[in-house]
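User: Hi! I'm working on a homework problem where we have to compare a predicted structure to a textbook description. Could you give me the structure for the chain below?
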Amino acid sequence: MAVTLRDVAERAQVSVRTVSNVVSGYEHVSPQMRERVNRAIRDMDYRPNQVARTLRTGRTGMLALVVPEIDVPYFSELAREVIEAASEVGYRVMIDQTGHDHDRERELLLGNDRSMLFDGMLFSPLVTKSELLDMHGATPERPLVLLGEHEFDGRYDHVAIDNVQAARDAVGHLVALGRTRIAAIGTQPLEEYATPLQRTAGYERALADAGLDRDPRHSTPAAHYSREDGYAAMRRLLESTPRPDAVFCYSDLLAVGAVRAVFDAGLRVPQDVAVVGVDDIAEGRYSRPSLTTVSLDAPLIAREAVRLLTRRIEHPEAAAEEVVAPHRLIVRESTGG
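Assistant: Happy to help. Predicted structure tokens:
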């Protein structure tokens, strides 16, 4: 016979109501009690009747995570952390990717038939600031938490890092090494995307702090933050005169491609060109040279995002909250560490 809530309650020596609260993801359950119930659920292989639960509560027990590209290592790591954090509060996670398609992002933001499959959405969009403002009058079909570097306007819960300061720290490190011709890979001069705009602002502020002039030829765009784009951008930079002696890449994947381009040109990292990225992906830790990077706290970002979303599900009327996650510079071999 199928295991029931009452069976689990008896095994955990708690009330049926407590088991129901844990299964439903109710946040006001002590960690000790939640672990006791979850242990009984695992031991008894309890499987809730999802259809009955949805009809009874109007909730599915599912969250959605929407990212631009799931094969980008940072988003893969974030997805893993979100799944872990959601599981701890009784939710499962569906993952979707937008593939840089703005129409798809807009459709997901404003709701469609699939939005009925989940109770809330964690969304890392690439829509620009103006596009978000265009949607200001619309109400999402489900509770929403924005991830990434979008200006907080008090409408949506938001989890991000201080991208300007992160870039400033990375470029300041290169300045401290005595580098004076510092390039940037990842600018988006024709777009309004928040992440590149903020990283460009941090890059320019760090140069100004050091009294260094910004050479426009050293601000290099990248269509996507991929190894291929990093390689191509670095090749262009190496053809410029004077050649840069350091480069700040807006992602680790760009930096991995840039390092390869330097070596293919017969030069050395970091002796001829120092390279720093952002994200602290595993590939950068184990590459040779290992990659200096700005590390983002993905576990904390995931936990805070899930906390905000489950709070929004329970309390739709609550004021929106912004969480700025910490970052830290990790110095490795690509800058001489």
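For your comparison, note the following. The chain has a mean pLDDT of 86. DSSP finds 13 helices and twelve strands in the chain. Good luck with the assignment!
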